[in-house]
UniProtKB/TrEMBL annotation:
Residues 13-104 form the Histidine kinase/HSP90-like ATPase domain. Transmembrane segments: none annotated. CDD domains: HATPase_RsbW-like. It comes from Streptomyces xiangluensis. GO terms for molecular function: ATP binding. This is ATP-binding protein. The keyword Transferase applies. InterPro entries: Anti-sigma-factor_SerPK (IPR050267), HATPase_C_sf (IPR036890), HATPase_dom (IPR003594). Keywords: ATP-binding, Kinase, Nucleotide-binding, Serine/threonine-protein kinase, Transferase.
Length: 146
């Protein structure tokens, strides 16, 4: 399963760069049907990392399961607080995880103490989502919750 990594500095342009990165990789892997939802979910997770883990950079890891036509995106950051899922959130701010939950049909979660990630400080958390092949945690990584 190919994996791709993008280092994400805490800048205003980073969510757009991350979104374009994921879209480009998925198109190159012939997974164009996943691009729109994956790009939006990626943008939400990277935006959260930039907003809530101020002053620390994030790392995006994208795993593509070739035979399964599945994708898993994990964003690692230095904010140890888990994301909050707000039900039925209608506000412009604070609905990112709600969107991720809806678009992935609940296939998202966190990796507390994600020390195995390249880049973030030890003890950083990862927030992930999956799209594609059905079933929870199709691309489960060693040591992750899901």
């Amino acid at each position: 399963m190919p994996e791709y990594t993008l280092f994400c500095p805490s800048l205003e342009t980073t969510p757009r760069v991350a979104r374009d990165f994921v879209a480009s990789v998925l198109r190159s892997q012939q997974l164009g049907d996943l691009v729109d939802n994956a790009a939006l979910c990626t943008s939400e997770l990277v935006t959260n990392a930039c907003v809530h883990a101020k002053g620390t950079d994030a790392v995006l890891r994208l795993a593509v399961g070739e035979p399964l036509a599945a994708v898993r995106v994990t964003v690692y950051d230095g904010d140890l607080r888990p994301p909050i899922l707000r039900e039925g959130c209608l506000d412009e701010n604070g609905r990112g995880i709600w969107l991720v939950d809806a678009l992935t049909e609940g296939r998202w979660g966190t990796e507390p103490d994600a020390a195995h990630a390249v880049g973030p400080p030890p003890g950083a958390k990862g927030v992930w989502f999956e799209l594609g092949a059905s079933g929870p945690s199709v691309l489960r990584r060693e040591g992750t919750e899901g």
